[in-house]
Write a structure and sequence with these properties.
Layout (H helix, E strand, L loop, with lengths): L20 H14 L3 E4 L4 H13 L4 E2 L9 E3 L13 E3 L4 H4 L8 H12 L7 E9 L8 E7 L2 H10 L1 E2 L1 H7 L6 E6 L9 E5 L4 E5 L4 H4 L2 H17 L2 E3 L2 E6 L5 E7 L6 H5 L11 E6 L3 E5 L5 E4 L4 E5 L9 H6 L5 E3 L2 E2 L5 E2 L11 E2 L5 E2 L13 E5 L16 E2 L2 E5 L9 E3 L3 H9 L2 E3 L11 E3 L12 H11 L8 E5 L19 H11 L6 E2 L4 E2 L14 H8 L3 H18 L5 H13 L1
Helix pairs in contact: 2-5, 11-16
Bound molecules: sulfoacetic acid and manganese (II) ion (MN).
The site of manganese (II) ion (MN) has 3 residues, from loops.
Length: 597
């Protein structure tokens, strides 16, 4: 697929809006390297959005959707070879390979800089280099970081404007001497052979080339907020985690906040926007974040979390008014859709959307599609980028620089067998073990096979910016900084019965499990001790009004010792890999689990 034509906006201001000398010098250096026709400094204004959007439409990068049905919404198709994160092309370039650890790809910083600068030399000729200043976090939070991304993609600029607090607000936060993360992105010719997402933690720098897909190129998200964020968090005493954050409000007005780590495309957005079933009248779930949590110890010894993002980059297929009404409303305006299907009346469609499939449409690659077609109309990893303000369940605290106090941390994955619906870890150290050994079936969010069980510690395997063994050590050390640490839980919405059907309905009904978790945090419900942790009796989970009967719930909660013995052996796959750096506490936890089994 040919690259879109060069972008040369007619409204390039001639002066940079910042007095930051280091930043200006770096932009000059990158301009000399990439040789764009011009440099455009973004201010994040509404006028700028309108002009850039028009540019993108004129160049065929965006298609304007039916503005009556979807006001402010646009449609984008990515190159078919560029539809997901690419873990094989993702590098952590620490000084030594040990610092990156055995779960990351590593290259020496000097060698990687040379390779990428060679690729970038002259790469923006005939194009515009956009200077995109952004905040991860809200103005004034002690956790907030400034990033600046140089990119030759208007799609990236417009997506960053949705996903982060972008523009003047970041220039203001940066001031003349502030610290910032450097990010350079060039699409090059979108050749997968020349696709690299490289992180230089010691230089607080990211370089991404050869892709134009979300997680690879929206550098604030996985690259800064998770990979560099986790690296900085270890040094600075906080945590950057692949977690949603939600608020649970009871009918009496009691508020609790939980953060939950599930791997990509395992339902974080759905859980964060959950609408309680009607049996839970008076209960309310509010969304603080759907993908990333930055957390630090507060003055009262609790763990406080902010969502560093300002938008949602969610999986579209399967989303409908039953599975996630709040996501449907979130993406009803001012949204960029990528790789869904396009209907003749300028609407979008995907597998699992409410109503009948359209009689005809164009699929995510622009090919004619009808319900008789064998292939899917929308790519399984097609995405929406929507501003969080669109979410009817948005927590007002999402803009609070102090964040919210976390009562429970929840780990979970997609597991057809073995892992029960819910259990609680015995204590923090055991909770770290539970997170470190979690696993999930792979999804379309990353290129590679789908449906294979792989260990994905804390859902951070693709996102930890340093040695995973040291990351576990950092988790253990955080306990000392917390007088009142969150309780730790593990959930599995995806367990199947012998007939191959899911044992638990999931989605809004997960409220029933969440209530048990909150009640545990408040010391209101009993639990019984099992070899793997504290568990509810079936009668402790309210199933009134559900099709699930007590026998099915009992099966969803059951423990099979033989399956668990196998599970412990499978955990070794990761532990062997990390053995040299594994904290001894985790090895002891493993021994304790074996003896309990
Ligand atoms: O593509 S993203 O990395 O932004 C989403 C995800 O995989 O979690
Ligand atoms: Mn994610």
């Amino acid at each position: 697929m040919p690259l879109p034509p060069a972008s040369v906006p007619s409204f390039v201001p001639d002066a940079s809006p910042t007095r930051h000398a280091d930043l200006r010098a770096w932009v000059e250096e990158m301009r000399d390297l990439c040789q764009p026709d011009q440099v455009y400094w973004c201010d994040g204004s509404e006028r700028e959005r309108e002009q850039l959007t028009q540019e993108a439409v004129d160049q065929g990068i965006l298609i304007r959707l039916n503005q009556e049905k979807l006001p402010g919404c646009y449609y984008h198709r990515s190159n078919p070879n560029d539809v997901a994160r690419v873990e094989d092309c993702t590098f952590i370039c620490t000084r030594t390979p040990d610092a990156a650890g055995p779960t990351n790809h590593w290259m020496a910083p000097a060698a990687m800089y040379e390779k990428l600068y060679d690729l970038c030399r002259g790469a923006m000729k005939g194009r515009t280099m956009y200077v995109v200043p952004y905040l991860m976090g809200m103005p004034g939070s002690p956790l907030t970081k400034v990033g600046v991304e140089l990119t030759d993609s208007i799609y990236v600029v417009l997506s960053m404007r949705i996903m982060t607090r972008m523009g003047q607000v970041a220039w203001d936060e940066l001031g003349a001497n502030g610290k910032f993360t450097k990010g350079l992105h060039s699409m090059l010719d979108l050749n997968p052979e020349r696709r690299f997402i490289a992180h230089f933690p010691q230089d607080n720098t990211i370089i991404s080339v050869g892709s134009n897909y979300g997680g690879n190129v929206l550098l604030g998200k996985k690259c800064l907020a998770l990979r560099l964020g986790s690296y900085l968090g270890r040094i600075e005493g906080w945590m950057a985690e692949h977690m949603l954050i939600l608020g649970v409000e009871s009918p009496t007005g009691e508020k609790n906040y939980v953060a939950a780590a599930f791997p990509s495309a395992c339902g974080k957005t759905n859980f964060a926007m959950l609408i309680p079933p009607k049996q839970f009248a008076g209960w309310k779930i509010t969304t603080v974040g759907d993908d990333i949590a930055w957390m630090r110890p507060g003055p009262d010894g609790r763990l406080y979390a902010i969502n560093p993002e300002a938008g949602y980059f969610g999986v579209v297929p399967g989303t409908n008014f039953k599975s996630n009404p709040n996501a449907m409303i979130s993406m009803s305006k001012d949204t960029i859709y990528t790789n869904v299907a396009l209907t003749p009346d300028g609407d979008v469609w995907w597998e699992g959307k409410d109503g009948e499939p359209p009689a005809e449409c164009l699929d995510w690659q622009g090919r004619p599609w009808t319900p008789a077609s064998k292939e899917k109309a929308a790519h399984p990893n097609s995405r929406f980028a929507a501003p969080m303000q669109n979410n009817p369940a948005l927590a007002p605290e999402a803009n609070d620089p102090n964040g919210v106090p976390i009562s429970a941390l929840i780990f979970g994955g997609r597991r057809a067998t073995t892992l029960p619906l819910v259990f609680q870890a015995f204590n923090w150290i055991h909770g770290v073990y539970v997170g470190a050994t979690m696993a999930s079936e792979t999804t379309a969010a990353a290129t590679g096979g789908v449906g294979q069980v792989r260990r994905d510690p804390m859902a951070m395997l693709p996102f930890c910016g340093y040695n995973m063994g040291d990351y576990f050590r950092h988790w253990l050390r955080m306990r000392k900084l917390l007088k009142r640490p969150p309780k730790v839980f593990h959930v599995n919405w995806f367990r199947k019965g012998k007939d191959g059907k899911f044992l638990w309905p999931g989605y809004g009904e997960n409220m029933r499990v969440l209530k048990w978790i909150v009640d545990r945090c408040r010391g209101r419900v009993p639990a019984y001790e099992t070899p793997v942790g504290w568990m509810p009796e079936p009668e402790d989970i309210d199933i009134t009004g559900l099709e699930v009967n007590v026998a099915e719930l009992t099966e969803a909660l059951s423990l099979d010792v033989e399956e668990w013995k196998r599970e412990v052996l499978l955990q070794d796959e990761l532990f062997f890999k990390l053995y040299a750096d594994l904290p001894k506490e985790l090895i002891f936890q493993r021994e304790l689990l074996i003896s309990r089994l």
